Amino acid sequence: MPTRLDPNLLRTFVAVAEAGSLSRAGERLRLAQPTVSLQIKRLEDVLGCRLLERTPRSLRLTGEGETLLGYGRRILALCEEALATLAEPEVTGLVRLGTPEDFATTHLPMVLAAFRRSHPNVALEVTTDLTLNLIERFRAGEFDVVLIKREPLGPSEGVRVWRESLVWARNKNAPDPFADAQSPLSLVVSPHPCVYRRRAMRALDGAGRKWRVAYTSTSLAGAQAAVRAGLGICVLPKDMVPPDFVVMDEGSGAPDLSDTEVALMRAASLDRPGTRLADHIVHALERPA
Known about the structure:
Blueprint: H1 7-19, H2 22-29, H3 33-47, E1 52-54, E2 59-61, H4 63-87, E3 93-99, H5 101-106, H6 108-118, E4 122-128, H7 131-139, E5 145-150, E6 159-171, E7 185-189, H8 195-207, E8 211-216, H9 220-228, E9 234-237, E10 245-248, E11 259-266, H10 272-285
Parallel strand pairs: 3-4, 3-5, 7-8
Antiparallel strand pairs: 1-2, 5-11, 6-9, 6-10, 6-11
């Protein structure tokens, strides 16, 4: 039986599992890919089991790897919390965070609450806006950290922390609009610029389907209210579809929307409170591709 788990090896394993590849994990950890591979091998040798199944084109966790991932995340989170509480209790300041509204109301509250517990002297100023507006305001110096929706670009524009499967959704009491191939589809969308709006229109144009913008809302709640009223259909992340909505898949004639990503961007001159928040969000949200 191994006498201990090296936290550095554990951190590398969690990074590989969450990034979905050795190269992306190396970029995140600032390690060369051969070093990442060697550390995974050392961890497997210590535990006496395979943690990853690797092929030239894919990487997936074994059963033992899935078990260790849960423990690893908890161990590393406790280490970070202990460090923040005991070694750096003096961290204070203001962090200005920009985020899309839907992400702020669903995935972020628990993440920010955990950060607040470990950094009670750091004030958070959270602003919601459309992605392209967030990027423009970030570049103008209005934010320290921003979360943006983007097309899958890899590591170039920020660090990916979330991957969203997009779906078409409608009021469950409304007829399926894709059943009538001749009638234009009524869309409920956010104002331009919006990643989901652009993705919906491109998908419909590619499928040769007619469409029209029936309702535009700046808020998620407003868009959902319009769909409930039967004014049209919308595009939502799959895990954010309300229970009274129906998902329309390719079987009903709805074109594929593919996935989008949520990425984190941090200011070049980010201070300690901002760095702590950015690292916390990445570790709390990042999941496999």
